Amino acid sequence: MEQQNKNFKLVSNKKTRVILPNMFTLVGVCIGLSSIKFAFDEKFTLSVIAIIVAAIIDGLDGRIARLIQGTSKVGKELDSLTDVISFGVAPAFIMYFWKLNELGRIGWLICLIYVVCVALRLARFNINSGKEPSWRDNFFEGIPSPAGGVLVLMPLIYSLSDIQIFSFNYEIIVPLLFAIVSIALISKIPTYALKKITVRRNLTIFLLFGVILYFGLILIYTFNAIVISGLLYFIMMPVSLIHFNNLNKKFKSQEEVNEEHEDIL
């Protein structure tokens, strides 16, 4: 009897590896939904912080799954559904309660279009993620949904920050930014896939220092750091496009050379 009790387990070790990253994902969706409640109560500071925490969790759950070999098809689909809620529905509701409701039906239409674009972007990502590995994996097609969710919140985050250099007409800026981000989500503009960047072993210590410094700034100067991060991300978009085009030309020329060698042989 004692031997049977020792061997008894609620779940196998393999299933535990799958459950852990999925638990992170579900916590992320709960935080994303909570941001809507905060916005409904006009606690916009908490709603923005909730979206940022959800974005951090979204960046961690996939890495944890790969690290402990706990990836699964369920986790992949669950992650996409979570992204629709946390970075599609939640930011749209937050901005609607903050400014877009002042535009009436047009404001609600803008929210609907944005959420649809997030869903389309994630559907395309799920289809393309099954392809063979290549250098293109270092780039996304369009901006990822977590980045889009944070970018549409930029006017609100700017208003909460200490960086009040310019005064904006939010009734124009907010709908315009929603339109730009919605187009960027479903576009094929290549953007850096930060999740897949690999760092040489001798540079790991500098990466860790940079990550700790960045999160330290986020903790101390939360909204200021997020505003600057958003501006840097916008600047990096044309840089990633130029980098992608240069790599594309390089690899195409190599393929042409290889084909010529094959023809000669």
Query: What's the Cα radius of gyration?
Result: 21 Å
Shape: globular
Q: N- to C-terminal separation? A: 71 Å
CATH homologous superfamily, by name?
A: CDP-alcohol phosphotransferase transmembrane (TM) domain
Largest sheet: 2 strands, antiparallel
The number of helical runs is 10
Structural class: mainly alpha
Low confidence ranges: none
Could you tell me the mean pLDDT? 83
Count of distinct structural domains: 1
Number of strands: 2
CATH class: Mainly Alpha
Fraction of residues in H or I helices: over 70%
Order of helices and strands: HHHHHEHHHEHH
Q: Please state roughly what percent of the residues sit in beta strands, choosing from under 5%, 5-15%, 15-25%, 25-35%, 35-45% or over 45%.
A: under 5%
Record the SSE blueprint.
Layout (H helix, E strand, L loop, with lengths): L1 H6 L5 H28 L3 H24 L5 H26 L6 H24 L10 E3 L3 H7 L2 H7 L9 H17 L3 E3 L11 H17 L1 H43 L1
Antiparallel strand pairs: 1-2
Quick structural overview:
By secondary structure, the chain is mainly α. It has helices at 2-7, 13-40, 44-67, 73-98, 105-128, 145-151, 154-160, 170-186, 204-220, 222-264; strands at 139-141, 190-192. It is 75% helix and 2% strand.
Question: Can you tell me about this structure?
Answer:
Helices cover 75% and strands 2% of the residues. With 265 residues, it is an all-alpha fold. It has a two-stranded antiparallel ribbon.
